[in-house]
Amino acid sequence: MFSGISYCFTGFSGSVTASEGNRNDTTDIQVLYNGRAWRNLYNRVRGDQFLFTPEFMLGSVIIDKKKFNNLKVKYDIYNDELLTITDRGIIIQLNKEIIDYFDMNYNNQIFHFKRIDADSLNSLSGYVNVLYDGEMPLYVKYRKEILLLAVENKYDLFNQINKIYLQKDGKFIQINSKKEFLGILRDQKQQVHSFIKSNNIRISKKNPETFKPVIEYYDKLRH
After folding, report:
1. How many Cα atoms are found within 13 Å in the side-chain-facing hemisphere of 144?
2. How far is CA 94 from CA 13, 63, 82, 97, in A?
3. Is 213 within 8 Å of 199 (Cβ atoms)?
4. How far apart are CA 178 and CA 175, in angstroms?
5. pTM
6. Contact 71, 42 (CB under 8 A)
7. Does the residue 10 lie in any domain?
8. Which long-range contacts (CB under 8 A, 24 or more apart) does 88-95 make?
9. Per-residue pLDDT tens digits for 53-75
10. From CA 130, how far away is CA 167, in angstroms rounded?
11. Which sign, positive or negative, has the C-alpha torsion 184, 186, 188, 194?
12. Domain count across the chain
């Protein structure tokens, strides 16, 4: 468990708490703020570049086993960057290279994210939402694109894209359809189909959470 070390800042709702498991020295909050000041470059684009809401949400960040709690965060999925706000009201784009994990609380649901480093074998990199962390982890990568002149042929528009990935044998497999997903689970085809039907599950990329109970059930069948 983490032992808590608290830092209180005026201008925050509550206090930022930094905690760590392996060291007892005082945590320097500047580790968290090792980023750069953020400014919005997309005021003229309709919609916004953020996941769920453009408002700050309560969250936490883990950096080198140190967990910073009670943060105000929002996730820019157009640029794949996590933002927080300092005690002076400055919005900071956090240094992605040092962040291991972060959480966000939206509508009383906790969303867990991890950072995946790009390499020659991976088709996936950056922040991903961990939907399932079992033997075959399930991730969703949220992105937004800008559709040019999509509103009244006058204004550009943000459009969200969800990409679903399974990790199998160390490789990330992008799931583009329900058929592809069920194809990966074909060794338990009959049982999986029965489970989906009996639980009235409608698998959809627009709602990535619908993949989760199916892969959880599949893992149970294999053990």
Report:
1. 23
2. 19, 11, 6, 9
3. yes
4. 8
5. 0.83
6. no
7. yes
8. 88/11, 89/11, 90/37, 91/37, 91/38, 91/39, 92/33, 92/35, 92/36, 92/37, 92/38, 93/35, 93/36, 93/37, 93/38, 94/32, 94/33, 94/34, 94/35, 94/61, 95/34, 95/35
9. 999 999 999 998 899 999 999 99
10. 11
11. positive
12. 1
Supply 146's token pair: 């800008």
Would you say residue 202 lies in a domain? Answer: no
Domain that holds residue 49: 1-116
Rounded Cα–Cα distance for residues 71 and 60 (Å):
6
3-state secondary structure of 188: helix
Contact 140, 129 (CB under 8 A): yes
Q: Are 140 and 204 in contact (CB under 8 A)?
A: no
Proportion of the chain above pLDDT 90, given as a percent: 71
CA distance 121 to 170: 9
How confident is the model over 10-40, as pLDDT tens digits? 233 335 666 654 332 335 678 888 889 999 9
Does 43 fall in a domain?
Answer: yes
In a domain, 95, yes or no: yes
